[in-house]
Amino acid sequence: MPPVFIWLPAAAIGLLMLLPPVYLLVRTLESGTAGLDVLFSMRTLGILLRTVLLVGVVTAACAAIGVSLAWLTLRTDLPFRRVFGMLTALPLAIPSYVFALLVITALGPKGMAQGWLEPLGVDRLPSIFGLPGAALTLTLLSFPYVMLPVKAAMQRMDPAMEEAARSLGRSSREAFFSVTLPLLRPAIVAGSLLVALYTLSDFGAVSLLRYQTFTWVIFIQYETAFDRSIAAALSLALTALAIALLIAESRTRGNAVYHRVTPGAQRVPHVASLGRWRWPATLYAAAVVFLSLAGPVALLIYWVVRGVTAGEPLDLLWSNTVSTIYVSALAAGAAAVAATPVALLTVRYPGWVSSLLERLAYVGFALPGLAVALAFVFFGASVLTPVYQTTFLLVTAYVVLFLPASVGATQTALKQVSPRLEEAARSLGKTPFHAFRLVTLPMLSKGIAAGAALVFLLTMKELPATLILSPTGFRTLATSVWSAASEAFFARAAMPAILLIIAAGIPTTLLILREQEER
Amino acid sequence: MRFPLCLGRAFAFAAFAIAAAAVAACGADPTATPTAQPQATPTPVPQGAGSLVIYSGRGESLVDPIIQQFADVTGIDVEVKYGGTASLAATLLEEGANSPADVFYAQDPGGLGAVESLLAPLPADVLQRSPEWARSPQGLWAGVSGRARVLVYSPDRVPEDEFPADIFELTDPKWKGRVGWAPTNGSFLTMVTGMRKIWGEEKTAEWIEGMVANGATIYPKNTPQVAAVAAGEIDIGLVNHYYLYRFISEEGEDFAARNYHPSGGGPGALVMVSGAGILSTAENRENAERFVEFLLGTVAQQFFAGQTFEYPLVEGVNVNRLLTPLDEIKRPDIALADLADLEGTTAILRDLGALP
User: How far apart are CA B164 and CA B179, in angstroms?
Assistant: First the structure.
């Protein structure tokens, strides 16, 4: 039986996470068979396959880019690695529909790339629409979901294991694949799971790039038929798909141990020399930064300039920036706090209760934001009237939406902390809570911070829940971008989008500064 | 490694957040009927002109200036929640009687139709400012500004003698691969509903099949179609009229697309409206009525004509010089309230493979 300070908050969070599925169930039962008809039509099944394909491609690509960049920026002599380390986290802050718009402008028919290539005789580029564009956009936006937790795990990892492998005659590369990579598995899997679920729930990119996924079908129900019950039935099916992913993930997990088992102090890791791979590696990192950040930002600046020269006023949106940072920080803090008991319970006390809780924790992330927001309207307007449309309920909804980002990072960190340390503290007469506070928590802080940073970035660009659940008159940068872009005022949409990326620099810079402090 | 100070504070917040979460969770039992009556909202006693809560499905960048003007003139404390028309309609339906909203200002009659059960009749003098074809027969909502369905075309690739007289001609094989549409867009669906009234179900089905057979490129909404015409991806798109002018004002006169109203009329020449209705649970009913009246007044109507490139609906306000005057469009004679049967339209589009 876990101590009260773990199971009580964990149970409360489990109940909170139940709100969206309960709401969806209520609405589905209303729909009768209409929802089932849509769900089991051949077209929907085809769309299901397309969705799985997109999820697979994006997740694999993000894992490859995320792990390689984490290693390059932390463990090698890559030039400018701190700058790369910071810049590669920022794409997370770009809303997917903005990125998709930019991709179409740059690579679409008669886009910028084609304009540049035309003098060379290229008059038609391969079409960006469909799978290539959607996969490209979602990969460039979401590889940091893998990179950030992997970096955090690498920092906690004891280099002694790698060194032992080296001393037994393995080359640097063999040691990476046979020791480092397996030790990083929890972080890679946790990050990939976030990528997969984010891809599952994305609407902005797939709709603009014309790749029809399951979430797209759900939105069509809300948008075209004003039909909440069919949309709810489909959302429940999406939940089932997400849970299938989670079960598949836990099947592959096994009973591996990721913490060190012998006493001793952790040493500063060895920095690999890239040798002749130094410049190709720099080129690779630069290409990722260019495609995922520098290129989009340049295009956004171009839109602003074009708008200003055409007479648009330049609005710096100071109050929107402040409120964006304010709610995002609240959400990051609340998610970090909510994730800790969930991670403790699921890692330290495995069993059916904790695996149920773990799956529940991921449900909100896989659902379309609109469905989760409507669940909060459903409960908020009828039962929780005093807090309805307050910052409090909005932040609670953010926690439900983004908890897995925080839970995953914290769990990964916890798996690297040996329970023996807590046991030692207990044997010296500390209560479980004291042992947690004095021993475990300090060692978890990096994982918690990485998770909080992810939640911060996710909250900043969140749209459907922010629009519906925020106090009336509340504006964030994301709502400003959306409001302008949806009416085709691209110049006006560009400025808040740039501010969004700048604000995303705050948590990432803080993380990097802490890294440096510790060296 | 040191213990970060902020975590201590975070834990204080934790206790707070978790307690609240527990409260939230306790209220989550779906079988329990909400026993507590909705509490009287602790809003401060209205001072002076009082307040008004608007749910606006129309974009902030479009209507915020005119709403601000209303607030300035009347001294009313106006709060606006912006969002998509469909998601705000869904929100209103979920909120039911507990909605804090006074006015729903929607982009299309479909959104207003979806929440009709929550609306109260408008006062007759306000309602009648809006032309009869553009308002709800039960007086539940009034059309505020007009938006015409239009063909956006490329002047380079579609010479004048090729202009289709009506959109049925677009099913001709010569348009194969040259046309775009946005089958999930609200305005498009409203047009198809009109088409079913004007042409009947059979011809509508024939048109949809013809468009699908012609490989009409699917866009998520109107603006990408306008951009795609200019970019040379398609030659003709089925859109609303005003997006073109926003592109031209940002990108300049040489933007390579123009509008065309089908000369033979029909569903492709339909004129639709944005509209507003008052919730029957509105706490600020008087202010809500003043607002709808204001939207149908000269000042607001001139704003729509001048700033958002829409058609004013009130007598005596001139249309923007860039637009084709309303009486030159061969608008099908159809009341917008007849365009509410969205379900039938989505069903037919779904059957014919244009929608999932």
Answer: 12
Judged by CB atoms closer than 8 Å, whether chains meet at A399 and B18 is answered as no
Token couple for B276: 């507003």
Q: How many CA atoms lie within 13 A of B282 on its CB side?
A: 24
Across the interface, do B95 and A381 touch by the CB < 8 Å criterion? yes
Helix, strand, coil distribution of chain B in percent, nearest 5: 45, 15, 35
Q: Do B186 and A212 touch (CB under 8 A)?
A: no
Q: Considering CB atoms only, which of B7, B230, B247 is closest to A441?
A: B7
Asked if residue B19 lies in contact with residue A15, where contact means CB atoms within 8 angstroms, the answer is no
Q: Using DSSP bridges, classify how beta strands B51-56 and B103-106 pair: parallel, antiparallel or unpaired.
A: parallel
Six token digits for residue A196: 């997969």
Give, to the nearest 10 degrees, the angle between helix A96-107 and helix A131-142: 130
Q: Model's pTM, two decimal places?
A: 0.83
Q: Which two tokens stand for residue A22?
A: 């309960």
- Quick: pLDDT tens for A71-84: 899 888 888 888 89
Q: Is the dihedral of CA A407, A408, A413, A414 positive or negative?
A: positive
Cα(B187)–Cα(A61) distance, rounded to whole angstroms? 38
pLDDT digits (tens, 9 = 90+) for A480-516: 888 888 776 777 888 888 888 888 887 777 776 666 6
ipTM score over 0.90, yes or no: no
Contact in structure between A377 and A468 (CB atoms under 8 Å): yes
Conformational region of residue B292, where left means phi above 0, alpha means psi within -120 to 50, and beta covers everything else? alpha
Q: At a CB cut-off of 8 Å and minimum separation 6, what does A496 contact?
A: A317, A320, A477, A478, A480, A481, A484
In whole angstroms, give the CA distance from residue B191 to residue A445: 57
Q: How far apart are CA A3 and CA A430, in angstroms?
A: 13
Half-sphere exposure (Cβ direction) of B196: Cα atoms closer than 13 Å: 19
Q: Give the helix/strand (H/E) hosting B279.
A: strand B271-279
Could you tell me which chain A residue has the CA closest to the CA of B88?
A468
For residue A197, CA distances in Å to A56, A366, A441 come to 11, 5, 28
Contact A235, A371 (CB under 8 A): yes
Residue B68, C-beta contacts closer than 8 angstroms, at least 6 positions apart: B78
